[in-house]
Amino acid sequence: MKLYEILLPLAALILISLPLVKALYNAYHGKSVKASVITNLCSFFGVCALAVICPMGAFAAETAAATGTAAGMGYLAAALVTGLACIGAGIAVAAGAPAAIGAVSEDPKSFAKALIFVVLGEGVAIYGLLISILILNKI
After folding, report:
1. What is the DSSP letter of 107?
2. CB–CB of 136/80 below 8 Å?
3. Separation of alpha carbons 84 and 117, rounded Å
4. Residues sharing a CB contact under 8 Å with residue 90, sequence separation 6 or more, in sequence order
5. 3-state secondary structure of 100
6. Is residue 132's pLDDT more than 90?
7. Rounded to an integer, what distance in angstroms lies between the CA atom of residue 19 and that of residue 34?
8. What is the predicted pLDDT for the residue at 29?
9. CB 111 within 8 Å of CB 132
10. DSSP state of 134
11. C-alpha span between 123 and 5 (Å, rounded)
12. Residue 110 · residue 104 · CB < 8 Å
């Protein structure tokens, strides 16, 4: 294993985790979040520049030879489908669950109706998981 194979992912990890450290530091000291957002943008563009300047062609060639480009794109598609569906379900449940709890606290008879709205939001994640399973079965 060559030294750059260890240092490049380590540098990318440091650049990605830098905004989290800055945000925690600012939250602990009661400072503004503006600096954390600027640090996040700078680290994002730093990781992008690192990926453009130092492409990992050896890793890509080994992966393409082992699995094929189509299989790699299939795995990427399955990951994106699952991740984005779960994010959407989280947003839906975050909006629906507090409203359902408020409705049930006012009228206990509305529990079944409120539960349906929460379950519909969680169904989006299940549909995403189903699609990713179908994609993985085609690979």
Report:
1. -
2. no
3. 20
4. 125
5. helix
6. yes
7. 11
8. 81
9. no
10. H
11. 41
12. yes
